[in-house]
Each structure stands twice: as structure tokens, then as C-alpha cells.
## 1
Amino acid sequence: MTHKKYLESSQYTENFAAINHSLPGSEYDWLVKLRESAMAQFNEVGLPGPKVEEWRYSNLNLLTSGTYDAVKPDTNKNSDLEKIVQSTLLSDIDGSVLVLCDGYYNESLSTIKNEKGVSVTDLNLFIKNSPDQAQALFTKTTTNNSLKALNVAMMTGGMVLNIDKDTKLSQPIQIIHITTAYADKKAARYRNFINVGAHSEAAFIESYVGADHVSCWNHHVTDINIDEEATLEIYQFQTEGNETVHINETAIDLSKKAAFKHHSIMVGGKLSRTEIKPTLSGINASVELSGAFLARDGSSHDVFTHMKHMEPECESNQIYRGVLDSGGKSAFQGKVYVAKDAQLTNADQSNKNLILDRNAEANSKPELLIYADDVKCTHGATVGELDSEALFYLNSRGLDPVSAKALLVEAFVAEVFEDISMSSVKARYLALARNWLNVGE
């Protein structure tokens, strides 16, 4: 019965058998066995279908029509890459720049500032130079779903980023993921490991960019560890090309008094799914998640969060806004789990959606699983249309219909990003929301 919930995906099994011993790290028995074990786990079920509850709103049939072979590093120098990096960077942020192209860390395009206590290594180089540490990293993390298992089995690149204890970054690190035309009909499977040491403070500005009409599958899996009294804040921009399948899974483990903040906007891709899975493993840990997703013309965005409150006196807050125009589809699935011993938990989540056209679809599925008795947990979800009186007022003041809608969309989304202190970061979020309606006009 279980198999009926999943999609036929035997082509990935055949593809793995053909390339297994040519994948990076194949000279290490432990990694070969890890890949084979992960592939066996994937083979037990395959790609999740719409009857799998967590995937009911994401149609992965797109991934059954081809093999999506692993993309190899492009040996040809692409002069446009540097232009893409420069156009993506926020010029007023003077921190390190990390660039990954089609899943591979690109050292030549990256700029590492002399920040004491910060190190970054290409994943394949890390496996080669520190095999014991690499094995420990992979052993520590779990492959608790079939897609993550497939990522482990066929990963080709990624990075290991470490921030030592008692380190406070003077500037955010900008991380740019570029999808090139070379990735057409292929898959880029990243695996990133990030560690933030005790009492440290760090911020990342993470951008996913790609050209239109490149039909590829970008599969990012990131494991983040935040030690005691450390803070990590991520500002994420997803502006992939219009034919890209973008699946991004991030697992975060927080120790005592650790804090994690994640702000995101999703406007790109044909099918986009963002999974954020924080585990509050230490007392007084806190998590804030905020984001906006805007879909139209056959694009689909799915946000799935799984907040695990495992210890007492922890706090989490989630606020997401969706905007759907003709042909757009979205889903927000927010699950909050409160363990038996996690007393004095405070957990809130809110999802509001704005429908601009009746040929759009918004889905919202908040879920609370509470096993403690002294908690404060709330959730709310709404779907509505633009205020016709506000539209009429703006039109009467000389704004054309598209500009009036764009202004109201920006105002609707602005609530998500109102607490961001970096002006250039906030301005980019609001500009993407404001200009989204004009794309393709």
C-alpha cells in the first residue's frame, strides 16, 4: 500500500548504477557504502506523490519524464558568470562572497575576506582532505525521507562552512547559487554543512539565480548546527528561471539559548518547494521564520515548515504571505510539534494569502501537535482578494491598474520584512514584490 503513494522513478535507480563509481569521493569505501545505503532507502518508495500528505500540493510528476543526470562542472570558462555575480551582490555589503555554480563551489568567483574564525571548504575537497571529519558529519545527519536519501546517493557538490566559537562577523556573508545553461535537462544536488560556534553571531544573504528556459532540477540539502548562545540570520532570495524545479531542505539544530532567523522570498521556478526544519534542542532557544511567495503563469510554490520544540521555555514565530495571480499555485504547510517535557513553549504561526485572479490556487494547512500542558500555541490562515475600494482609490489618483495592484501587493508583503534592519536587504525584498507583476508585461 505504501508504494501507491509514490511515483514511478526506476530511471534514477538505473542512473545511479551507471554513475555510482564515478561520483565524487568514490575512492572512499565509507562514502560508497553511504551512497548505496541511501539509494536503497530511496528505492523502497521513490519520489513522493500527491497521496503523501506532506507532498499533496507539489506535483513531482515533472521529475518522472527524464533521468536528470548529475550535472558535471563546466570546464569552459563562462564570462557571463562574473557579470551574474556582480549584478546579484548587494554592493553596500562588504563581506565574503561564496559562489556555487550548478552545485559546485567556485573558488575563482568567491571572495573570502580575512575574517578570523571563519573557514569555508568545497565539500569534495573537504572529503578528500578530512575524510574522518566528513564521515562524522554525514553519520550525524539522518536521511529521513526518500528525496534526502536520493540527494545523499547522488550528490556532486556543496560546501562546508564553519564559524568558530566567540566569532562575530563584521559583515554578512553573501552566498550566490547560479544555475547555468549547462545544467539543462540535468540535476544539481548540493549538500551543505554549516556550523556556528558558541557565542558567535553570523548573517548570510543567500541568492538563487538562473536563466529562463533551462529545464533542470536543483536539489539543495543543508544541515545547520547552532551552538549555545549563538545566533544565525539568513536572508534568502529565490529567483530561479521559469523552467527550474527548485527543492530546498534545511535542517537546523539549536542548542541552549541559540537563535535562528530566516527571511525569504520566492518568485522564481516552475515548481519551488522550501522546507525549513528547526529542532529546538536546548532550553531558551528561539526561531523566527518569515517569508513571501508570489506565483503566476503555471508556477507553484510550496513552503513546508516543521518546528520541533524539544525543551522548555523555547519560542518560535512564523509569518508567511502568499500572492497568487492567474495560473499560480501555492501551499503553506506549517507543523509545530511540542514534546511532553517542553513546558512554557510559545509558538505562533500565521499565513495570509492574496488572490489576484480566480484562476489561482492557495492552500494553507497549519498543524499543531502538542504533548505538553503549559504552552501558548496559536495559528491562523486566511485567503482573500484585493480590496476593490483601495484599487478604485489608486486608479482615481492616476495609477494604472497594474501599478495600483503592484502597490497593494508590496504593502501586503511588507509586513513580513518590516523588522529587517539592513536597508538594502529590505529594499530588495520590497522591489521584488513590487516589480513582480510587471515581469513579462
## 2
Amino acid sequence: MPPFSNFNTLKIQDAHDIASCATLASLLEVSAYPKPGNVHRTQDFPGTSFEHFLAAGVAIYPALLEAAQATIEGKYPRERENLLGETILQAARRTHIWQRGGNVNFGEILLFTPLVIGAAACVRDGNFSITHFRAEANKATSLGTVLDGVMVYQAFQVVNPGNMGSRDRYDVTNPHAIEEIREDNMTFRDLFLLNNGTDDISEEVTDNFPRTFDESLPHLVEALNSSKNPNTAIVDTFLFLLANKPDSFITRKVGAERAREVQIRAQEVLARGGMLAKGGETAVWALDEKLQKEKGQLNPGTTADIVGATLFVACLSGFRP
């Protein structure tokens, strides 16, 4: 594997490259093992298998391809001003059709969609710097309209993610939430800002992807260069993120104390070298075994989604396994 000094320039030519990078990132993320507490190539959950995630990763390709092509052709945001919400809804519907494992990739869909539009804007503008890419992805979320927000809620109804908590207004489980969104003119960004402090995916989308670009991507580069092994680097990046912050998906399901326990265990594994050391790798397997005994209750799903977004950026920037 060639050394990676950085991922500062996108290496893509067209919409197919962008959608292919997204699918590859999704498949690499779920395949990495042993990603503690997650479904991976050697571990299924009851009712949700590794194969469900593979199917979902492939299913989103057409929706992301269409979004990229529309942006490159200059149709967004003029003719297709609601491309953000349309793409999220289409990707969610396709995922639902192509597999029967429930919600397996909605977090990735939410993260990938603005990144797809941002990457396509780089092709459109002939500017492939990571700075331009990030700015355009952030712009896509900022331009999200009330209708974009409505379509995201429709997508929530399709995937029925569960463990989303509850609120008096705009509750995703409330059939009248869409009426409330329209009544109050809540835009895409307005809705995601409601979750800041409680959901890391919402914070990524509304705050210019800080964990993806500033935290996770540099560690992935370092781990790739140290290990020369994509699987090792991906799992180690997952552990790095999990050690840095309690997983918000675990927090919503079983509370902050249990999420903090998982974070501390990830820190202990990294202190032993993580996937980059023989003793650390043994500890990674042990942590996976412990978390798997909880039958999905201690599944760091949000952390996995951010790793997926990180791999997407890396693939756009030239990473190939």
C-alpha cells in the first residue's frame, strides 16, 4: 500500500466515481472486524446480519449517483433545490426495498448525502481541494429547506430507526410532526440543530463535519501508514473515535453511564496499542466479545457511521484497499 501523507485533494472525475466511493466506504466500514459491539463480517445481531448491511451499501448507489450528477450538471440548487431531502428519502426507500434487516444505514445516508453534493460541486467547479469540498458539503446542509426537512422525516418513517428519544414537538414518531414542521417553517438545518448535544450525526451535519475531518480522518491516515492494512486501520480509527467520546446511540438506548463505560473500555484497549499491537488486538477481540453479549444494547452505531463518512472522504481522496 502506498503511503498517505494526507487526504487534501479529491481524486474523482465524475458522478460514478463519487457514488462508487460512497458504496465502497459503506462496505469497508461494515466489513472491518472485530469492530467492538457492531455487526461485522464475523458477527451478526439477532434479525440483522452482515449481509443486510452489504445489501444496503449497494442499494444507495443510484440515489447518490443521481444527486452527484444533478449537482455536476448545475441543476442544484436551481432546478433541484430539494435535492438534499430527495436523495435522503430515495436512499432510505431503496435500502428498505433491498434488505430485511431493519435500519442498518440511515446514519450513513444522512452523512453521505451532503458529502456527495459537496464532492460533486468540486467536479462542477474544477476545484478539488478538501477545503472547497468541505465548504460545499456544509453549504448543502445550510441550503436545506422546509421541504428538505419534511422529506427527511418521511425517510425516518420509512426506516423506523427506533431509540430516537422523544420531544413535545417534531417528534419523528409523531404522525403529525410533518404538519408541525410546515406550520413552524422548520428547515433541514433547524431540525438537526434540535439534536445538538444529544446526537453526534446531527452535530456533524450542522457543524461542518468536525469529527469526520478533524478527528477521524487524520487518525485513519496515521493508522494506514503504520499498519499497511485497511482492516486494521479502520478498526483502530473506530476505537479512537469511541475512546474520544461516548457513543450517542448507546446513550439514547441505555443511558450516559453505560455509554461512558464503553468509552473507558475503548480507552483501555487503545492504551494497550489497539489494533496496531499484538496485545492490543487481543484486547479488541475481548472487548467485541463483551459488547456482543449485550445483544445490540451496547452497539456504538453512531461511531460506526462517522467511520463510514471518514472512509467516504478517504476514498474520494484516492484511498483504495
